[in-house]
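User: Run a structure prediction on this.
Assistant: Running it now.
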Amino acid sequence: MKQSLKRLTRVGLTALLALCLMLVSAGAIYAEAEEAAEQTEKEQSNEAYLDKLVRGLTQQVVSLEDNQLEELKESTDAFSASAANAWASNKEELGAYKEDQPEDSVKVELSEDKKTYTVTQRTVFEKYDADFIYTINAVDGKPGNLTINVDLPMSVNMQRAGLNTVMGLGTVFVMLIFLCFVISLFKLIPNGENKKKAAETAVPVRAPEPAVPEVYEEDETDDQELVAVIAAAIAAAEGTTPDGFVVRSIRRAGRSRR
């Protein structure tokens, strides 16, 4: 009997312990499910709040007049300045804002650090659709920035790309033509070295003057004395007087060059 009671006691304790473990596990599962439900409810509440917030902000932005946009561009508030600049840049291209916006046009994304919401609203305008992208602080719910992406059709994008290409090529050719014109003007700029060379080439080179032959003037006085000496020498050799001699010409004997 005692052994049977011990066995029953052990079985009862084991069953009680298993029941306690089951209750603890069920409590943990219930707590996790309740926490997940609260988190889901909180997220849904945040998404609903953000949906309402961005729709109201978009209506306020698109209703701004030109003078108001100019004032907000100089605002110290970062969101006001970014919203005014974004809308002023795309206002004319989008056209009029349509009041009937899709109900499911707002998408909410939470950053990995859970500090910033990125809320995108798909908006419909007269000419094109656009995405209004808001960055909102997840702690205090204040908007920080707004960017607008216009959904242009492929034909418009191709047309703009072609115009940009033509303008780029035209600018390059205009600059090349201008550079060629500037380079062509360099020859008109006075250059000291070229001027000096031109002056040197302009001076005429004188031809060497021909040698003037030396003219020896004969001294007639010396010739008469020489005639008298020669006549006296001949008369002495002939044994006569020089009165009968007549000297008609006197020539200088050529000297041989060594």
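DSSP finds six helices and four strands in the chain.
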